[in-house]
């Protein structure tokens, strides 16, 4: 009998049944955990169908992979949910078409389901800590997710993926699915399709072709794996047996309690588009407690912060609306312009107004400005580590009397900007930097 050291819970999100597995140390720590979303209701790890959890929990104990939260998602109709586009039936005896509702299903997983899981459980919501995996058509839709949502899921598991599906291999060839942040595991049994008389007889060669397409597009051996299970057929017990190995390959990176600083600095981006997910004010306060450990001459600590979210944003939005309407020259456009900026502010999940007390001493004032700027950057790095993005906005209206009055800015205080804070809806690519060697002058002689 299988003895599970972690915890299994039945849950529901938007009328879909979920099976949630929490690892052994979940209740013994305050840590956040990576998440693997598993198709077919989690049959790959459900003790009712699989003994995989025994092996996986041994992997946790031996430090082979980090402890994971596993989320099994029950399909409505797997022929519909796990296919990216419509296709006619391939088997005359069953004569059931494939519905091609994969985009709707993945949208549910990436948005509704992930937001629900992230809000209810202690997850690490960052893309690099989020994966998706499935068997057969579940493996197919996982590979499709690698193309559609590479900024949500970066650990992709395709166990006996159905690459025979009409149009999938051409799609992969045409779309050039390379993404630097992805790790993709593929496997197939050597006997899969051998007894079929339809397109499924091409199971093994098409899986190899799909793998080669990915390799040719730029994926390295560290990012892409294909395992041929000798003697294995297209059976759930074969898939269940390979599931722990798939997790070990996908998650075998050394687990760090904090992201490497150099990597964090290089990967942080200014974020301008956010999801609807709310940012926890308590987490922001916790991060700022660390961020304020910035160099500060004479320890003046001249900063303070006003954090607005929810209905509190209306204070800023209304002040901006009034300012924009007042300054719009064309009377016919006043209301339209004011409404535009009001809605723009209200769409931001959280705003932080950064305020600095201005010293009458010029040198102290310059030092204080530098220190407060470091605090802002410290905060942006700490937030990024938690999967939260921001942009530092310094638009002119933050210095206007209407804004200062609305926010309670005192005489002698300077507003350094508003931080727009939220969970990224899109992460822009990196902009190239001039090599430091071109901007550093080395002087070693008098």
Automatic annotation (TrEMBL):
Record-linked SUPFAM superfamilies: alpha/beta-Hydrolases, FMN-dependent nitroreductase-like
Source species, domain of life: Bacteria
Classification via InterPro entries: AB_hydrolase_fold (IPR029058), Esterase-like (IPR000801), Mycobacterial_A85_antigen (IPR050583), Nitroreductase (IPR029479), Nitroreductase-like (IPR000415), YdjA-like (IPR026021)
Residue ranges annotated for the Nitroreductase domain, each copy included: 265-423
Cofactor entry: FMN
CDD domains tied to this protein: YdjA-like
Example GO molecular function: hydrolase activity
Record's keyword terms, sorted: Flavoprotein, FMN, Hydrolase, NAD, NADP, Oxidoreductase
PANTHER family the UniProt entry points to: ENTEROCHELIN ESTERASE-RELATED (PTHR48098), IRON(III) ENTEROBACTIN ESTERASE (PTHR48098:SF3)
Family that this chain belongs to: Belongs to the nitroreductase family.
Protein name: Alpha/beta hydrolase
Organism: Brevibacillus brevis (Bacillus brevis)
């Amino acid at each position: 009998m299988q003895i599970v050291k972690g915890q299994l819970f039945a849950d529901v999100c938007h009328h879909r049944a979920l099976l949630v597995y929490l690892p052994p140390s979940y209740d013994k720590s305050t840590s956040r955990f990576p998440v693997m979303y598993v198709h077919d209701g989690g049959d790959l790890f459900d003790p009712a169908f699989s003994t995989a959890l025994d092996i996986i929990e041994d992997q946790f104990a031996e430090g082979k992979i980090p402890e994971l939260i596993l989320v099994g998602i029950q399909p409505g109709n797997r022929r519909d949910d796990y296919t990216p586009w419509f296709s006619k039936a391939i088997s005359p005896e069953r004569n059931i078409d494939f519905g091609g509702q994969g985009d709707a299903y993945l949208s549910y997983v990436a948005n509704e389901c992930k937001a629900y899981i992230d809000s209810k459980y202690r997850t690490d919501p960052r893309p690099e800590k989020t994966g998706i995996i499935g068997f057969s058509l579940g493996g197919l839709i996982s590979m499709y997710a690698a193309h559609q949502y590479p900024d949500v899921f970066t650990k992709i598991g395709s166990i006996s993926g159905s690459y025979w599906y009409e149009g999938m291999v051409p799609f992969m060839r045409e779309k050039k699915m390379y993404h630097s942040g992805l790790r993709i595991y593929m496997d197939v049994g050597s006997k899969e399709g051998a007894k079929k008389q339809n397109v499924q007889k091409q199971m093994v060669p098409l899986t190899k072709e799909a793998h080669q397409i990915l390799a040719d597009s730029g994926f390295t051996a560290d990012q892409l794996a294909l395992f041929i299970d000798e003697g294995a057929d297209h059976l759930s017990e074969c898939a269940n047996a390979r599931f722990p190995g798939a997790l070990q390959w996908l998650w075998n990176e050394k687990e760090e309690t904090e992201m490497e600083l150099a990597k964090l600095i290089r990967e942080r981006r200014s974020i301008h588009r956010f999801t609807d997910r709310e940012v926890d004010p308590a987490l922001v306060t916790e991060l700022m407690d660390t961020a304020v450990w910035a160099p500060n001459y004479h320890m003046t600590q001249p900063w303070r912060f006003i954090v607005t979210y929810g209905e509190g944003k209306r204070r800023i939005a209304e002040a901006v609306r009034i300012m924009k309407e007042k300054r719009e020259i064309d009377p016919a456009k006043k209301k339209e312009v004011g409404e535009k900026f009001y809605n723009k502010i209200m769409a931001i999940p959280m705003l932080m107004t950064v305020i600095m007390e201005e010293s009458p001493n010029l040198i102290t004032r310059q030092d204080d400005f530098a220190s407060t700027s470091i605090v802002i950057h410290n905060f942006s790095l700490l937030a990024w580590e938690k999967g939260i993005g921001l942009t530092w906005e310094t638009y002119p209206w933050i210095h206007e009397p209407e804004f200062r009055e609305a926010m309670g800015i005192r005489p002698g205080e300077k507003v350094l900007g508003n931080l727009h804070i939220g969970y990224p809806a899109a992460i822009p690519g990196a902009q190239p930097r001039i090599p430091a060697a071109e901007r550093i002058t080395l002087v070693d002689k008098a």
